[in-house]
Protein 1
Amino acid sequence: DPVLQLSGITKAYNASKPNVVEVLQGIDLTLAAGEVVALVAPSGAGKSTLLHIAGLLDTPDTGRVEIAGEDMTGQPDRRRTRMRRADVGFIYQFHHLLPEFTALENIILPQLANGVTRVAAEGRARELLEKVGISPRADHRPAALSGGEQQRVAFCRALANAPKLLLADEPTGNLDPATSDQVFAALLELVRATGLSALIATHNLELAAKMDRQIRLEAGRLVPL
Ligand code: ADP
Ligand code: ADP
């Protein structure tokens, strides 16, 4: 089964009003296991809406969302939440780490919420920090980390529960260009090492070119870049 399959997804805002915004007008997308796809979209094209629907944070007006072969359409909220916690990782432009907790703790907490033991969660957190090259920063709080280090911790947190699918929205968009390239390379390496599927939104065509496939969201539809 594909890790993610979107079929005939439509979504409009203000559907009942004269200022209706038809953001998605028939989205079909299949992500095979291990596939890393770049999503390129001008601002306002509906990129966030698409990522939120794919990650079960929002529901489409019509169409089907399948994750790991399971049709999530019309499933109860608690089932969708459980699937999202276990199988989907999110990364945003800003790290959204908890400021009162260390890097290590920020990666442990979502695992505890997912039922993992403290010992196993810490082991996994240390392993992930090692993979992105910031083990020496394990006991620092986010404020003591550079922007690039903060994003690396956010990557580890997103992968903490070993999701099948990673959804990233401009994951290095708030970093300066040189840092962005390095941190993006670390993300791709982590994704490749883990073998998960990823849909990564970016404006940066050079970064997009490093992925397996590039698609553009245009006038509510996906077209090859
Ligand atoms: P309707 O039920 O009329 O179709 P929606 O449920 O689609 O309306 O809209 C949700 C709410 O989000 C609206 O009341 C609207 O005021 C608000 N909203 C409008 N524009 C935006 C925007 N660009 N971003 C976020 N929220 C918005
Ligand atoms: P992107 O992430 O590509 O910038 P979004 O998915 O956030 O785009 O939004 C796509 C379009 O839908 C924009 O025109 C935005 O203003 C509109 N929109 C987003 N959320 C709402 C909402 N809740 N209500 C009404 N319009 C919205």
Protein 2
Amino acid sequence: MTASMAASHLLSSSTSLPNILSRPSNQNRFSQNLTFTLKAAAKPPVIRAVLSQNPTTTSSPDSKTSQFQHCFTKSEDGFLHCESLKVQDIMESVERRPFYLYSKPQITRNVEAYKDALEGLRSVIGYAIKANNNLKILEHLRQLGCGAVLVSGNELRLALHAGFDPKRCIFNGNGKILEDLVLAAEAGVFINIDSEFDLENIVAAARIAGKRVNVLLRINPDVDPQVHPYVATGNKNSKFGIRNEKLQWFLDAVKEHPNELKLVGAHCHLGSTITKVDIFKDAAVIMINYIDQIRAQGFEIDYLNIGGGLGIDYYHSGAVLPKPRDLIDTVRELVLSRDLNLIIEPGRSLIANTCCLVNRVTGVKTNGSKNFIVIDGSMAELIRPSLYDAYQHIELVSPAPVDAEITTFDVVGPVCESADFLGKERELPTPAKGTGLVVHDAGAYCMSMASTYNLKMRPPEYWVEDDGTVRKIRHGETFEDHVRFFEGL
Ligand code: LLP
């Protein structure tokens, strides 16, 4: 499609602007309502099963995992649905765009996949709160039986607020500060020892809190997770964990503090977006070896924590990716052989695919060599593509007009940075102004990493409930929220 064709298509389509565009962005008929009901699609949407296609992979043949049901589906008439609701109808009903849209049933299904996989093992699913810290989602995960993995005092406070059992919570991090450690010691959560100074601080916190702390040693297993360097943590040059050759030093230090520290386990976390379960297996073999060494010195340790990191199918290519069962099956025998309690720390694989960022097209333009779809969402709401060059699948929520040409576009936001893109070189039908456009797999590390750059205030969040109603689960931030930080100074 040429530039002039794109421009003329735009001009001809601009007359079809929905009325909602002429209203101020924060007003519409649902703005006061926290829940509302939309008519379910007359025809049930086609279920897009994420199937394992390649027989040579390690994917489980178990029907429970291979017939995985996903919440976002395109129906035959070309409309995107979240469960049984048209995303377009939701988009036109909510108070402002962009917004995050989740499926509560999908969150449940993702947790159930882990629970099924863990059957027969003593285990804790420690949900990594950093992936998504929406309080309503946390409460739901807690009700489903998850524990929580924390990396700051505020994440700990939020976990307690959401009602998580402290005995199913783990406090991680390479730079935990004393006051947060005191809070963790008082609450009675597990704490991972990350370095010599971290051990000193945990001992100090235990004394201040007057409590003996259950600790795990975070050991760097020196395994290459084969992921983007920014999300790799288990390789030797990472800032996380203790050097494995220093293990004896740490065991001696723990022995010197019997009133403050009780060593209960060993932890590793290799990295994030891992798509080969053999990597977890390699690390588990190394960790079991350390556990044998630690037990040989008289420590009665019970927990092996293999961290999080399982990747998801961001490309929607139907590629064969390991599922929770594949992950757990690679370590099951090792765990059973030592009668261990297995802790896992999933974030992305529990929450990423439950959500889309729903945007509206502001316009289409070209610079002569590149075509751009400009949307109202941006790197402020969703930074992963800009920060990691991450791919997140993009599609329109409604069927394209018959005459819309398929063109290669960069999908960009309105933020004053050339780094502000949500997708590069995407083949899409040329959308009319006002068309809905979603960025998929936005449940993990999207809202939790959102900023207010360019004073684009953080968007509201909604989920589709089990009964098909839409509920707001977080208010959008407003200009007034920003101004409040300066009151009374
Ligand atoms: N446990 C520890 C110690 C971690 O550091 C992390 C993530 C997890 C568990 C959860 O990993 P997951 O299952 O979600 O992969 N912002 C990046 C991801 C950073 C992950 C940091 N650590 C992104 O957007 O891809």
